[in-house]
From TrEMBL, chains A, B, C, D:
It comes from the Bacteria. It holds the Pfam family Aldolase_II. Its EC number is 5.1.3.4. Residues 8-198 form the Class II aldolase/adducin N-terminal domain. It comes from Chitinophaga oryziterrae. It is an enzyme of class 5 (isomerase). The lineage of its organism: Bacteria, Pseudomonadati, Bacteroidota, Chitinophagia, Chitinophagales. Belongs to the aldolase class II family. AraD/FucA subfamily. Gene3D superfamilies: Class II aldolase/adducin N-terminal domain. It catalyses: L-ribulose 5-phosphate = D-xylulose 5-phosphate. This is L-ribulose-5-phosphate 4-epimerase. Coiled coil: none annotated. GO terms for molecular function: aldehyde-lyase activity; L-ribulose-phosphate 4-epimerase activity; metal ion binding. One of its GO terms (cellular component) is cytosol. Its cofactor is Zn(2+).
């Protein structure tokens, strides 16, 4: 079994990160899952984007064990594994240290929903998961990061199918989606929404959140049963 | 009737948006009107700029009904239709979510006229229309957006021929002009003016507006009867 | 007499402005003087950079009268003319609306000297000339702008040979130099110095100016009699 | 002896600075050491990056004396010489005036450790060395800059092998590493960390530093004895 298809998809998706200006050096990774085979393809750790190729992608199972590949997988691999294991309907995951989204994560703040650009993708603030406790950090850190992400959504009664992006406090954003392309798209969206929210607060310190009626309207015209956005 | 001319013009004008850095993914659209035929050509909804071509443009009448084209038109089509129907002298309309202009819209603030870059194009603050009331939002939203734009200008006694740009509160900018090229030009101008005003307030919190004599001078040297800018 | 040499120099210098990211559309112009002929070559008004060529440059004398050229010269031509007439040792002038320098001009603030990047080029704050009085504005505006610039330096006892950049309050920067290349270089320097000063104040609200000993050292190692910068 | 190898390495490393957006004009330089020969290759002073070539690099000894080369070496050469002389295990040094790092240096502030992007490279705030006293400035300035850098680390009990980047107060960043490539990498890292910290404080004025457990975890997974980042 060659996993050629997810290797190529992971390669293509990873190469979108520098093209979209979302990564400096190797500060990011994308993975693509094959649900039938129970594995995902992920970027090798520390390899520059200019040296990537489909055959360098690493194949890993949902326990984070390498199944195929000569290189060590991304150091965030276990976070990806946990999310694939528990979230059955996602097809791809992206992690970046994109500048504005990371600044919000470092500030440990949710990104408030200030406008329709945000509401086109999400009906709530972009959640920021609290930093983990010291025991989790000292333990199986990247594995626990996956649970920290899942628990943050659970505590807020949010579904991973509705909310496809999160900030991990003090760290950086993770995004996902039904496909790797959608996860990459979400990584660019959270960066732009983070940048706009930062500017909005600078322009008006006491800026109110978007009102409910506009949130509903914009989200539903793009994602609702009667959506009329796209083809 | 093939509408070839406005399809090509709409294609060329749409392609200027990514070239000018005004759009992420598909967050923008340009339309070009044919007054004699009573229709306009507009970008199809959700189609990436890299996949556009003149023949993919959609032909729509001033009631927002598709006249020709295999694809669904931009979800903002009804806003364009309302403006073409009521403003007889415009030839093109642009909508973007450009970062700085959108941040001012999210902050629900007019962009104050702080310098001659602004005055070269506009003698007043860039108006920010209030967000619509909930009934308008739940109703024919994009249609009402057109009226919200027109009413904002009316309430301030501004003419659409003098003021070719507006922010829709919580949403983003719309610009227009006698031609689509002018509307695209205005979309870049409002983004730059928004960026400069943001920086100006950061550099000086209590910054005064530009004085009247300078506003007049700069606007008239570019647009007045004795203008001496351009060829 | 063909003025070919200054036309080509003015063309090359003008084309550097978009390459350096200092202009949007046509918001800028460069001129190059021929002292022997008593004329300068300047960008035509409102012509996009992509359509420029050496033969489109306009030849103007020091009273601002067109000597040769089919196109109308830049609307800022009289400002250039006044400066060439009174400042014998400059060879080129640049005017832009570059974003950060323009924001300081709009805020009507001098750019404080906060670091050695600034001191490498200038031993004082970048001066911001006050906006003109209403009579000067209503009168021969661009001509008066030249005097506003000269008077600002005079009032502060600054020499145009030491200080090769200024902000015109509410308007934007002007820079000059012994050559047009140096004037363009200074246009990029004032933009970068403006950006750094803006960030410096954001990072530390009460930031002190650079101390005298460092100002002297950095300026003199680049410009003093014992300079050891460059070849 | 031709020093061809370090000349080529210095050329390649210098050319990375404009590619990474870290320099305007000639505001930066990289050097590469040959420990056996007791010399380093450094960029010539004031030569634009577009005109560089390996044979233009200047060979200098650890007392700052030119050993080979037709051009004058970078005006910061003596700072490089001092660091090579005292720090036996570094292979390359970079100096830039990159915008955000320079703004922190101008503000004379350490860059606080706010997130894991920072902790991946450094367990402490990026130190900002105090500006020198006036005697040091008037004396052998660039030589003293080297000692100012070394003394800042000493006072804080930091090792140059752990901390590969510093800000020189009022001036700009210096970075180094076991290789010139690593030093260039660090120059990009300090710029990005500076930008993120600036944004973080803008988003949350009272933002706490990263907690110790996360600092340890991230640094050790990349640099510790059981590191699992990279290949």
């Amino acid at each position: 079994m060659s996993y050629q298809s997810i290797k190529e998809a992971a390669y293509e998706a990873n190469m979108q990160l520098p093209a979209l200006g979302l990564v400096l050096f190797t500060f990011g990774n994308v993975s693509v899952v094959d649900r039938q085979a129970g594995v995902f393809a992920i970027k090798p750790s520390g390899v520059p984007y200019t040296q990537l190729s489909p055959d360098k992608m690493v194949i890993v199972d949902f326990d984070g064990q390498t199944v195929e590949g000569a290189l060590r997988p991304s150091s965030d691999t276990k976070t990806h594994a946990v999310l694939y294991k528990h979230w059955e309907h996602i097809g791809g995951i992206v992690h970046t240290h994109s500048t504005y989204a990371t600044a919000w994560a470092q500030a440990q703040r949710d990104i408030p929903i200030y406008g329709t650009t945000h509401a086109d993708h999400l009906t709530v603030d972009v959640p920021c998961a609290a930093p983990m406790n010291d025991e989790m950090i000292k333990g199986n850190y990247e594995h626990e990061t996956g649970f920290q992400i899942m628990n943050c959504l659970k505590e807020r009664s949010l579904s991973y199918e509705d909310v496809e992006m999160i900030l991990v406090g003090n760290h950086a954003p993770f995004t996902w989606g039904k496909t790797a392309d959608k996860a990459v798209y979400n990584a660019a969206v959270v960066e732009e929404v983070a940048r706009m929210a930062y500017l909005t607060e600078s322009i008006r310190a006491d800026c109110p959140r978007l009102k409910d009626s506009l949130i509903r309207k914009h989200f539903e015209r793009k994602h609702g049963p009667d959506s009329y956005y796209g083809q």
